[in-house]
Specification:
This protein has helices spanning about 5-10, 30-35, 40-50, 55-75; strands spanning about 10, 20. The protein is mostly helical and about 80 residues long. The chain has a single domain, classed as Arc Repressor Mutant, subunit A, CATH 1.10.10.10.
């Protein structure tokens, strides 16, 4: 069973200035998105950050997609 998004991505005021992070790490959603956007493969990211798992990268993408959808809905309203 897939973990819930809130189990994999958390926001804590004292961690990385309250940015969304992979739970239990200081790796932000924007860090992972930036690595992917720069051309790093999922495998390269996992090698560079042994605390991350495939599920974390999927959660980062899902978090970003859901955030984009919410922002789009606000713009339309």
């Amino acid at each position: 069973m897939a973990a819930e998004l809130g189990e994999l991505i958390t926001v804590s005021p004292g961690v990385r200035s309250g940015k969304a992070c992979v739970t239990g790490t200081r790796i932000t959603v924007s860090d992972v998105l930036g690595y992917l956007a720069s051309g790093m493969s999922q495998e390269e990211i996992l090698l560079d950050f042994p605390d991350l798992k495939v599920e974390h990268i999927r959660a980062v993408l899902r978090y970003a997609a859901e955030r984009e959808k919410r922002l789009s809905e606000l713009t339309i309203a």
